Amino acid sequence: xxxxxxxxxxxxxxxxxxxPVHGAxxxxxxxxxxxxxxxxxxxxxxxxxxxxxADSSAxxxxxxxxxxLSGDMVExxxxxxxxxxxxxxxHTLTGLPSGSVVYVAVKCRDDAGNTxxxxxxxxxxxxxxxxxxxxxxxxx
Length: 140
Description:
Blueprint (H helix, E strand, L loop, with lengths): L9 E10 L3 E9 L15 E7 L2 H6 L1 E2 L2 E2 L6 E7 L6 E9 L4 E9 L12 E4 L15
Antiparallel strand pairs: 1-2, 2-7, 3-6, 3-8, 4-5, 8-9
């Protein structure tokens, strides 16, 4: 019988910063589920995949058994290690498009290769704090 993890709930952290060259970054946080559902007595998951996109439908379409499919519209960070069941996990996503809406989801995997269902899909906006260039050729 194959056991899958329970759904991971992620939430946007209050910490946010912009990076002038590479766009925005955001930290997402979630509670680590147990290996077989939310029961922490059965062990811990061993790794996470985090996927983000500017298109929520592309993110949902990338959700396949075993993880996420990376594509033109979906960035995937695969094989991230994780902590103990019940602990808070976080990851800072960097290189996000500045001044855009971004969607993020997480899946976790156990030592037998079983993969969780997709988490809730988190929607947030990155801030564009980069000013336009100065006018350099003002003349009469």
